[in-house]
Specification:
Blueprint lengths: L1 H12 L3 H15 L5 H17 L3 H15 L5 H17 L3 H15 L5 H17 L3 H9 L4 H17 L3 H15 L5 H17 L3 H15 L5 H12 L6 H12 L6 H7 L1 H20 L1
Length: 294
């Protein structure tokens, strides 16, 4: 199911929204049969995101409403908060910022009841990003500053910086990215550090400072090559590939395909070679459908 939603997402990213809608319709049909409220809600949120990316915001809102109804039945604050954050993200992307803020407020209230500090920080990152996406940048920054630990705080700062950059406030995004870079340089785990620096590079590039972005991407690639776990290295190299131009990106994606899951590089492949990605996704989906029919 997640693979089908993922394929639909990369097809939408490649610009073939009609094909993405077909795949999303197939995914929705399967999602309705999933047992367990958390898995069903998360899958519905994924489908809603693909549908929204294709421009059908009315249908995406309907799916998000269905997902919210299911989310309210989830036991366990961490899972319920994560699913509610996903709903709020879809609602914010559809332009209903007031409703997104209400959902984010509900999610934060639930998050504050989580007793595991790592899980609480993870969920707060999602809340901060949704609050920023709903237009409350100051509120998002306030949430970020309450998060402990360099990796998690850097992730939260970068997430808010990405949203702020997308809103057009590149000066503030650069300030947040600079803070995130300073914190990222104190991270000792190479996978986490490479991930953080790569995302900082993306924010910096969006603000027009391409020379600095290239330097950050180079640092991230150097650190990624020290990662010993092949799956984590594939993920890190894929993220770097998203921030560099051809042909370097192609080489990095080739390495990622050889080291990790074949799904890992697909979103970046859709970004740099969209038509090839669409052909690839259609072939994979047709092969899967053929096996299911046997």
């Amino acid at each position: 199911m997640q693979a089908l939603i993922g394929v639909a997402g990369v097809v939408a990213a490649g610009g073939d929204h009609a094909r993405a809608r077909e795949l999303a319709t197939d995914a929705e049909r399967i999602v309705r049969s999933i047992d367990g409220p958390y898995l069903q809600a998360r899958a519905l949120i994924g489908v809603a995101g693909v549908v929204a990316a294709g421009g059908d915001h009315a249908r995406a809102r309907g799916l998000a409403t269905d997902a919210e109804r299911i989310v309210r039945t989830i036991d366990g604050p961490y899972q319920q908060a994560q699913a509610l954050i996903g709903v709020a993200g879809v609602v914010a992307a559809g332009g209903d910022h007031a409703r997104a803020r209400e959902l984010a407020t509900d999610a934060e209230r639930i998050v504050r009841t989580i007793t595991d500090p790592y899980q609480q920080a993870q969920a707060l990152i999602g809340v901060a990003e949704v609050v920023a996406a709903s237009g409350d940048h100051a509120g998002a920054e306030c949430i970020v500053r309450s998060i402990d630990g360099p990796y998690l705080q850097a992730r939260a700062l970068i997430g808010v910086a990405e949203v702020v950059a997308a809103s057009g406030d590149h000066a503030r995004a650069r300030e947040l990215a600079t803070d995130a870079e300073r914190i990222a340089c104190t991270i000792t785990d190479p996978y986490q550090q490479a991930q953080a620096l790569t995302r900082v590079a993306g924010v910096v590039a969006a603000g027009g400072d391409h020379a600095r972005a290239r330097g950050l991407a180079t640092d991230a690639e150097r650190i990624a090559r020290t990662i010993t776990d092949p799956y984590q290295q594939a993920q890190a190299l894929t993220r770097v590939a998203a921030e560099v131009g051809l042909p370097q990106a192609s080489h990095l994606l080739g390495e990622a395909f050889s080291r990790g899951s074949w799904l890992t590089p697909l979103p970046v492949l859709a970004k740099i070679l969209p038509q090839e990605m669409i052909r690839f996704a259609d072939a994979v989906y047709a092969d899967g459908a053929s096996r299911d029919a046997q």
